[in-house]
Amino acid sequence: MSELPGLFAPERVAVVGATERDGSVGRAVTANLLEFDGDVVPVNPGTETVFDRACYPDLGSVPDPVDLAVVVVPAEIAVDVVRDAGEAGIENVVVLTAGFGETGSKGATRERELQETASEYGLNLVGPNSVGVMSTAVNMNATFGPESARDGSISFMSQSGAFITAVLDWANDRDIGFRDVVSLGNKAVLDERDFVAAWGESDDTSAVIGYLEDIADGSGFIETAREVTQETPIVVVKSGRTEAGAQAASSHTGAIAGSERAYEAGLEQAGVIRAETVEELFDAATMLDGQPLPESDGVAVITNAGGPGVLATDAIGDSQLELTSFTDDTLDSFAEVLPDEADIYNPVDVIGDAAAERFSDALDVALADPNVGAALVLACPTAVLSFEELAEITTATQAEHGLPVAACLMGGESTQAAQSILDDAGIPTYFDPARAVTGLDSLARYREISTREYAAPTSFDVDEAAAREIIERAADRPSNALGIEAMELLDAYGIPTPEGAVVDTPSDAERRAAEIDGDVVMKVASPDIQHKSDIGGVRVGVPDDAVADTYEDLVARAKNYQPNATVLGVQLQEQVDLDAGTETIVGVNRDPQFGPLLLFGLGGIFVETLEDVAVRVAPVSEPMAAAMIDEIDAAPLLRGARGRTPVDEEALVETIQRISQLVTDFPSLLELDINPLVATPDGVVAVDLAATIDPEELDR
Fold first, then answer.
1. CATH of the domain at 400
2. Does residue 146 form part of some domain?
3. Most buried among 59, 253, 485, 525, by the most CB within 10 A?
4. Cα–Cα distance between 152 and 180 in angstroms, integer?
């Protein structure tokens, strides 16, 4: 990983397209750079000076080395300018110009040329279609936005340029500062992964925040962010909460694990805290920027108003935090420092006549309690309370104990001086108690993230060659679907299946049924008919003397239902006692950004109705597979609820891992469902299979 010093700490910046013409982007960028600590070099063949600085006709004519080139020229010549930058030995380029991949096929072609040029010269290229970059460390505002960032230690990336300009305006009003800011634009070369890596290496970035609309390389982002979040928190707003990714899916898993599920799983596995709103983004960022991590989830609330205290209590109940139960010693100490009318139980109500000193006494007692991980000071204005004095006392008490504290000052103009004092001490202030709790919750969430240990996926001894043969054989058929005729695929990866076979004549069905003990299960073997039970394509408990007639009936139903379907015959299976186990589903859907998504949940015919599932990005380790089982609401059913015999959970965990390995080994598997995977006290058995393959991926 690299800190990208030439991008965020350059000594010389060239603006290609610099001008003094009013209303132009070239003027805005050049004017913004006039406060830059280093040298600004205008480049424009049409003028000799820009803002009293010598202007050069092209980058090749600039006499001294340039660290960063900002390109503000028409799209038709932008690629040529980037090539000139490469020829001139400039390693860092920001292309503000629009008219690339966002505009259609012609622009997409131009963007590919830009990527090829950047690759040829090894350029760190931001954009195109970018607002630019900032670094407060060197007073560099290489954007055409109206505001410069205040100095701080939060680094900020955004896929929307307008979002950057709006946020900077909003943040400046609230004295929120930044270290580095980048408008990602079209992400033709550098993307979110590169900046997360760079800021993770920087000692000057305390937290990374971002607004993202997509993630270019989901699995790569997970890998990078996992490493970075061991030391540096990452908080993002991800827009586009849509199930559009599931619309074209044919399997249960594909219908459930759409695009939004992929991002939920991917960001969680990456250790990224996901904010729902811009306010949540900055509530988390400012808390993570200025406060220590709590050692526990217990929160003490100190307030002079009962109603807001209840609001805070409700918000704590909605979070992963908990309202601390104080020790007896703490309760005794509260009784000594607070009046008899006060409520010494959490939330602690110091009552309405409390001056700042009473707040301080209560906060001091609360933070000394071993059960308290953090505290919320919640105050409403009264005639006897000085917010400014409360702020001074709160900062001193927090510093003495070294535990995180949030302040909720429920007032207007009267709180401004106090907010300034608290902000200087790194204590975030809020009006809404729920937002204060959200900030504290982000600390607890990041404490868990920063201490995670990531285990490597288990590599099982499997018959990969046999699996490949089955998939390649299916690829020769007109359909790209696999069904129960490919159960050997599961056998190759060590997943138990019932005894059985696919037969293509009634006589073969009778012969094979005679070899299976007891009555059999018969299913239409057609990769084109996914939900066989919907057409009566499944028969359970068929005796030997009814096998031939059942065969004829099932094939006829399939052909009547879908005349153009490929019908391979009928699969016979030994009958599995479903009542002795619990029907689950293990499935995979391949996401465009994150790759294979692994799903586990209750199976059978109700899987899409209940959607009681857990989703992860494959490959998964043993702890991750076990966590998927823990996560579903129906986990108690698997563990013996209401007198049931617990299932073999180890077998379930192993099966999830084996499917993870299968879809990781074969990118050609686009979708896969084992439904049901019957879990019993003695193990698991895969009863049905449906899959979709991409023949073009078979060579990978």
1. 3.40.50.261
2. no
3. 253
4. 9
Largest Cα–Cα distance of the chain, in whole Å?
Answer: 99
Say which residue the tokens 């860092």 belong to.
92
CB 547 within 8 A of CB 522: yes
C-alpha–C-alpha distance, residues 443 and 374, integer Å: 9
Same-domain status, 482 and 624: yes
Which one, of 249, 246, 187, 252, lies nearest residue 221 by Cα?
187
Model confidence pLDDT, tens digit, residues 239-266: 875 454 334 334 444 444 457 888 999 9
**In terms of C-beta density within 10 A (0-12 exposed, 13-18 middle, 19 or more buried), how is residue 336 classed?**
exposed
Angle among Cα 370, 374, 378 to the nearest 5 degrees reads: 125
**Dist. CA 542–CA 348, nearest whole Å:** 69
User: Angle at which helices 433-450 and 278-290 pack, to 10 degrees?
Assistant: 60
The reply to whether 547 and 612 lie within a common domain is no
Phi, psi for residue 95 in degrees, rounded to 5: -105, 105
Beta strands 234-238 and 180-183: pairing type?
unpaired
The per-residue DSSP string of 527-545 comes to TT-S-GGGGT-EEEEE-GG
Span 508-557, pLDDT tens digits: 999 999 999 999 999 998 888 877 888 899 999 999 999 999 999 999 99
**Domain encompassing residue 693:** 462-498+576-699
* Per-residue pLDDT at 579: 79
Distance, in Å, from the CA atom of 251 to the CA atom of 232, rounded to the nearest integer, reads 38
